[in-house]
Amino acid sequence: MKNNVIYRRKPSVSADNGGEDGNVRIVKAQNHWSQRALRKIGLKIPAQTYRELDSYGSFVFRQIDGEKTVSEILSALTDAFPDADHLSERLALYLAHLENEEKWIEKI
């Protein structure tokens, strides 16, 4: 992973601090046409679902602001979690997951 890469959150991603212990909670709208149709016929499909991040994920997600480089995020992560092992590798995997699988962030 290149340390000078900058990530930003996608504008379509909605997040709040409503999780346990103030962790980040991602709010995902259930607004597909099939979900709307099933709600109309009476099935109980929620309009929104929530995914709560753990303390590590919340910390990293808050750091992604479109200005900080990966090396700056890693430095802040090392300061916040000094006893954690393999932070560089973990950060690289997590950022790749957020970008490629979840599609919550993008490179600038």
Protein architecture, described:
It is a single chain. With 108 residues, this protein is an alpha+beta fold. It has one domain (7-107). The chain has 4 helices and 5 strands; from the N terminus they run βββαβαααβ. The strands form 2 sheets. The protein has a 3-stranded antiparallel sheet, with no helix packed on it. Strands 1-5 form a two-stranded antiparallel ribbon. A hairpin with an 8-residue loop joins strand 2 (14-16) and strand 3. The longest helix has 16 residues, at 87-102.
Fill in the keyword field for this structure.
single chain, 108 residues, alpha+beta, 41% helix
Question: What are the low-pLDDT stretches, counting only 5+ consecutive residues below 50?
Answer: none
User: Number of helical segments?
Assistant: 4
Number of strands: 5
Number of domains: 1
Strand order within the widest sheet? 2-3-4
The level of helicity is: 40-55%
Distance between the termini: 15 Å
Described by strand count, sense and barrel closure, the largest sheet is: 3 strands, antiparallel
Assembly state: single chain
Rg, nearest Å: 16 Å
The average pLDDT value, as a whole number, equals: 92
Report strand %: 15-25%
Shape: elongated
**What is the succession of H and E elements?**
EEEHEHHHE
Classify the secondary structure makeup into a structural class.
alpha+beta
